[in-house]
Amino acid sequence: MVLVFKAKEYGQRNKKSYSSARIPLPVIWLKVARLKQWNRQFVSVLVILAFPLVTRGDWPRWGGAHGNFTVQNVKLADAWPAKGPRQIWRRRLGDGYSSIVTSGKQLVTMYRAGNQEHVVAMNALTGKTVWQHSDEVEFLEGTNVKEFGPGPLATPLIVDGRVCAVGVTGVLHCLDFASGNVVWKRDLASAFQGTKLYRGYSASPIAFRDTVILPVGGPGRGLVAFRIKDGSIAWQKHDFAISHVSPIMIRFCNQDQLVVVAEKLIAGVDPATGQMLWRHEHPIRGGYISSTPVWHDDGRLFFSAAYGAGSRCLQLACDADKTTVKEMWHNTRMRVHHSNVIRVGDVVYGSSGDFSAIPFTALNMKTGKVLWQDRQLGRASSVYADGKFIVLQEDGTLMLASMTPKKLTVHAKAKLFEGRAWTGPILDGKRLYIRNREEIMAFEIP
Fold first, then answer.
1. What is the helix (H) or strand (E) element at residue 143, kind and residue range?
2. Which pLDDT score, from 0 to 100, does residue 23 have?
3. Do residues 411 and 423 make contact, with C-beta atoms less than 8 angstroms apart?
4. Are strands 129-136 and 116-123 parallel, antiparallel or unpaired?
5. 150 and 201 in contact (C-beta within 8 Å)?
6. Close Cβ partners of 426 (under 8 Å, ≥ 6 residues apart)
7. In terms of Cα–Cα distance, which of 372, 393, 389, 376 is closest to 436?
8. What is the model's pLDDT at position 181?
9. How far is CA 297 from the centre of its chain?
10. How much is the pLDDT for 53?
11. How many domains does the chain have?
């Protein structure tokens, strides 16, 4: 069912959101006629069109335009008013932890109300509903649902004029970005016999060229790539059971690589074919891994889990155009539950712990050494821009902070709402969007 309140194109059909931070640039040969001086001789001019394919400020997928929770080309003040940033709008929503994605003047997220799961598009300037797609979805059973809510958990993807959104039971919808009409639909659990996690499906879809790729699980279906235009299968491979982790796209050894953290396995695959490029075993059960891995061009890959599992750093190397992998270190002093981690220089910053006291932690990526832990910030998610962190704590406190290898400095903070906030903030230009299990809000960051 689709309820259309307002249909406006916003010019999105001709925009493309690419999943890799390094985008092959289109190359066009233009014939330039020199009519008088060169007697209509033609000169071939190589023109490189170096323009971004994601508009400035857009946050089209989990982790933002580059998948690393950072925003470029934005200047932020060093302080806020006493009451916090200026609120632009605030509205009721529903249950769930899905993050927010934006493109142009429209934002999209997911929530649950009663027995229905909703994908909703809102006007980014006013918060008013543009369209809403709704489906009846069964409640998952178990104590986690009763205590922490029924989802949805995954974050939608905006790509090629479409919205790809997967619900807590593993039903993937591809919707028209302008109208919310269903383009195609796939049930990952029943049609593909995918892994059923007792907390529900939570991996966010990622795009590569004309496909959207998702961890599914099951024999020959560890990963499945669907064509965005019609939902047909481009490839499906591997036998591993999945985890809660969203895959990331990296560029290494002269090729694009999709990094997936599965149950007891982290691997890199060719996103065009699904071919396994490298793999590394780890001992962690899939249901206990939630945090997105952190990649850097120096070849280091960091991933972490709670419940005593700890953090690991892998070193990728390129040998004759083949990727090799080696575990550099492992420790249990940083144990990331489900919040994000951001790398700045050689240091990663994020919350550590699960059900005990949660200190915010700085850890050296090269050595695995914990540099500091600070309980001014507890369980929290963050976004990085202009050398500063905007941090949302689970109790609804928003902070502006600087973090260095030596210390944490809080510049400003404001309590914005009550209720559990496990959904990370997103920054579109200077507009900040946050939500909890009841409301969604927009603020102007000075």
1. helix 143-148
2. 35
3. no
4. antiparallel
5. no
6. 59, 64, 99, 100, 101, 102, 383, 432, 433, 434
7. 393
8. 99
9. 19
10. 41
11. 1
Cα–Cα distance for residue pair 127/102, rounded to 1 Å: 12
| Rounded CA separation 364/407 (Å) | 13
CATH number for the domain harbouring residue 278:
2.130.10.10
Question: Which pair of structure tokens corresponds to residue 267?
Answer: 């691997």
Q: Is 351 exposed, middle or buried (0-12, 13-18, 19+ CB in 10 A)?
A: buried
Please name the amino acid found at residue 319.
D
Q: Write the CA distances from 278 to 16, 28, 322, integer angstroms.
A: 29, 35, 9
DSSP codes joined into one string, 326-379: EEEEEESS----SS--EEETTEEEEE--SSS---EEEEETTT--EEEEETTS-S
**Residue 213, token pair as written in the block:** 């790729």
Distance CA 245, CA 288 (A): 10
261 close to 293: Cβ distance less than 8 angstroms = yes
Q: b/e map of 280-299 (b: 16 or more CB within 10 Å)?
A: bebebebbbbbbbbbbeeeb
Residues of the chain under the 50 pLDDT cut: 1-55
Per-residue pLDDT tens digits for 168-195: 999 999 999 999 999 999 999 888 877 7
Q: Report yes or no: 387 and 72 within 8 Å, Cβ to Cβ.
A: no
Parent domain of 207 = 2-444
Q: Are 217 and 241 in contact (CB under 8 A)?
A: yes
How far is residue 273's CA from residue 392's CA, in Å, rounded to a whole number? Answer: 38
Can you list the alpha helix ranges (DSSP code H) found in 74-131? Answer: none
Taking the alpha carbons of 123, 124, 126, 128 in that order, is the dihedral positive or negative? positive
Phi, psi (5° rounding) for residue 189?
-75, -50
pTM metric for this prediction: 0.86
Tokens representing 227 are 């064509």
